[in-house]
Amino acid sequence: MREIFCLNPISKLGTNLLTEAYTIVKEADKAEGILVRSAAMHEMELPQSLLAVARAGAGVNNIPLDKCAEQGIVVFNTPGANANGVKELALAGMLLAARDIVGGIEWCKSVKDDPAIAKTVEKGKKAFAGSELKGKKLGVIGLGAIGAEVANAAAALGMEVYGYDPYISVNAAWMLSRDVKHITSADTIYGECDYITVHVPLMEATKHMINQDTLAEMKEGVVLLNFARDLLVDDDALAAALEEGKVAAYVTDFPNPKVMQMKNVIAIPHLGASTEESEDNCAVMAVREMMDYLENGNIKNSVNYPACDMGPVKHTSRVCVLHRNVPNMIGQVTGVLAAAGMNISDMTNKSRDAYAYTMLDLDETVGEDVAEKLRAIEGVLRVRVI
User: Fold this and answer.
1) DSSP state, residue 219
2) Deepest in the core among 65, 178, 199, 333, taking most CB within 10 A?
3) What is the distance between the alpha carbons of residues 285 and 150, in angstroms, rounded to a whole number?
């Protein structure tokens, strides 16, 4: 029986996919898999039994990726599962900034006791007049699952959309509307767009990508939207740009102490993926990824190991070796199997940065003695026999 531990409440649409070969436990001590949403795992002691962590969401900053990789624990996420929810909120953010809807709602509340409220509204509504999105230029930085959907939806609304992503995948490119202008430099977006929305992961290269220099390139009165990660924006530079009017409005899904003191900020309490549909989609994808790995050794949407898929196990044994990406590793692994008189029916090897993954199918039973010899190879982090 495979034990699965849920660090957060996980949608039953996901956990109901677990077969009778699995059981959800209340302690992680002997768990082979952990399902998590936003709970912090950095201080958590990871059990020796743990093989996989599946994040029901895209961001993995709550998970110690390097620590997991070093222990041969594969970490999965669910890119695209919450894309529609975030897209819809980003579109709502643009509308909120364009029409001062929030200000209008608050003003209506302030005159709620006025017996002549209908006349008062007609007189006062001019203070909240805004502009339409149609015809405005939108720059989308990052054309992954979410960014591409935002770009396509904005183009359908009649906006002139510019998209920038130097790492765009083939699949993402195919999903992009022909009305979206794919550009090769973010400078074009900074210099020409009325609205700019960022949809990139947080890493060292993207931290504070919206800063004093990039803000200086932007049009006067630009609207900036951030539904990706808080630290993509330099708060101090943003505060100065808002004060000067360089940025007309900042719409963010990440309130923090500094941002909440700035003027012309529309802050939303991290609601991007907070829809029933997004939570269901993320849970389903996370559970399926984890089950495929535990049962077949296949890796899809991992953030610390390479993608590798040999389909369902059809041979007597499948050997899965998680190891460092170093020379002669495959030779040593196959050498151990050859010395044991075993013939390899099929195999594949993939690498990703410092780590690699080798899968081998055999028509013979691989005993614990052979598995131990594989584990003894320098650079091998974990060996599984399925």
Assistant:
1) P
2) 199
3) 22
Give the C-alpha separation, 300 to 290, whole Å. 9
Q: In whole angstroms, give the CA distance from residue 74 to residue 290.
A: 9
| Closest residue by Cα to residue 259 from 232, 236, 292 | 236
Q: Considering the entire predicted model, what is its pTM?
A: 0.83
Cβ(76)–Cβ(286) under 8 Å?
A: yes
